[in-house]
Design brief:
With about 240 residues, the protein is α+β, with helices and mostly antiparallel strands. Helices cover about 25% and strands about 35% of the residues. It has 2 helices and 17 strands. One of its GO terms (cellular component) is extracellular region.
């Protein structure tokens, strides 16, 4: 270490030298040696870089190197992420996963093997043939089930999710669509006819009542008015004069 030790350092250093960089760090910072060419320079960081793990001591906090196959680690013997080509399992980096486990190339970890799981079978469907449930004697019925757990790479594959079997039904005729449609059209036409008939009858009734009313009005206009009879005094006077 160069004897020139300075107290006025930068970059989180508590003490430093021109030749070796940081010699000690300010509180809570980690001291780590970085290699530059043939020499090592001390630096102070808030957290340890990749490939190192931090240890805290009363006088200094240091960054120590992980194992060669570790990318990041919690301690030297407990890896948290492995370098390329290795799989993480219980804090260790392995080239091959133990028996009963499989390598997950996405997370680069050894994980448990997951087998496929399915639900219970559904009830059998109605006996059908060509999408119909009538007009035949022999048909097919189907039942299905769902996949509730997809398998992992080395897990047991999923079985069939549908089954079909032949079935026999009491033969019955299908109602013809054309006939049913024709009956519906005839009912609609008859209903329209009944409504039209009622409408015509109501119109005729109104016309007849209007004609009768007009006839009465015409009769009242053409009939001559009756002359008013003279009062009793005039009649008596006429009788006296005659005598």
């Amino acid at each position: 270490v160069h004897p020139n030790v300075s107290q006025g350092c930068q970059g989180g250093c508590a003490t430093c030298s021109d030749y070796n960089g940081c010699l000690s760090c300010k509180p809570r910072l980690f001291f780590v040696l970085e290699r530059i060419g043939m020499k090592q320079i001390g630096v102070c960081l808030s957290s340890c870089p990749s490939g190192y793990y931090g240890t805290r001591y009363p006088d200094i906090n240091k960054c120590a190197k992980c194992k060669a196959d570790c990318d990041t680690c919690f301690t030297r013997n407990f890896c948290t992420k492995c370098k390329s080509g290795f799989y993480l399992y219980s804090g260790k980096c392995l080239e091959k996963c133990p028996d009963g486990l499989e390598a997950n190339n996405h997370t680069m970890e050894c994980t448990s093997i997951v087998h496929c799981e399915t639900s219970e079978w559904s009830p059998w469907s109605p006996c059908m043939k060509k999408g119909k449930t009538c007009g035949f004697k022999r048909g097919n019925e189907v039942r299905v089930r769902e996949i509730v757990q997809h398998p992992s790479a080395r897990g047991n594959p999923c079985p069939a999710t549908s089954e079909s079997r032949k079935c026999i039904v009491q033969r019955k005729r299908c109602q013809k669509e054309g006939k049913g449609k024709k009956n519906r059209e005839e009912k609609r036409k008859n209903s329209n006819k009944d409504e039209s008939k009622e409408t015509r009858q109501e119109s005729k009734g109104r016309a007849a009542r209007r004609q009768n009313r007009e006839q009465r009005e015409n009769n009242n206009k053409t009939q001559p008015k009756k002359r008013k009879s003279p009062n009793k005094e005039q009649d008596l006077a006429s009788v006296d004069t005659a005598h």
